[in-house]
Amino acid sequence: MKISIPQLIPQEFCLSCRGCCRFSRQESVWQPHLLQEEVQELGKIPIILEPGRDNFVCANLSSPDNKCLIYAKRPFECRLYPFLFDRRRSRVFLALDLNCAFVRENSKDPKWEEFTRGLIEFARSRECLDILKNNPGLAQEYPGVLDLVELKV
User: For 60-109, what is each residue's pLDDT tens digit?
Assistant: First the structure.
């Protein structure tokens, strides 16, 4: 099942950022969490030491050009980013990662606000709530995110 999520962030911006898909530790809350069917298709996505650096990266990231090697079939959570599902005890929220440079620079833009409203509508849909119910590992406790709306999972 591939869920279509439109991309508002321009490709050139993402490719020049060098923020996503990188982690300070090999085990990180920020690493991709996969849907059950994605695990069957992709297996576990390893987090490896970035060559010549002291940080970790997704094994599907081509460090020299900052491109995803599985972009066309990247996981649902990667398609959703910089939005994610934040867990606060028993509550789940659609949240926004404020560390994303594009978010910091464009969060007041009317196009971004319209996109966010559409994503909130999707997050409240039966389709998305079923995904969360069947894949509870998608909701993690993320530090420093902005909770946008609580979801009734």
Answer: 999 889 999 999 999 999 999 999 999 999 999 999 999 999 999 998 99
Parallel, antiparallel, or unpaired for β 139-140 and 83-88?
parallel
| Residue 95: exposure state from Cβ atoms within 10 A (0-12, 13-18, ≥19) | buried
Cα separation, 12 vs 35, in Å, equals: 28
Question: What's the whole-model pTM score?
Answer: 0.92
Task: Identify the residue whose tokens are 């909701």.
Answer: 139
N-to-C CA span, the chain: 20
Backbone angles phi, psi at 117, to 5 degrees: -60, -40
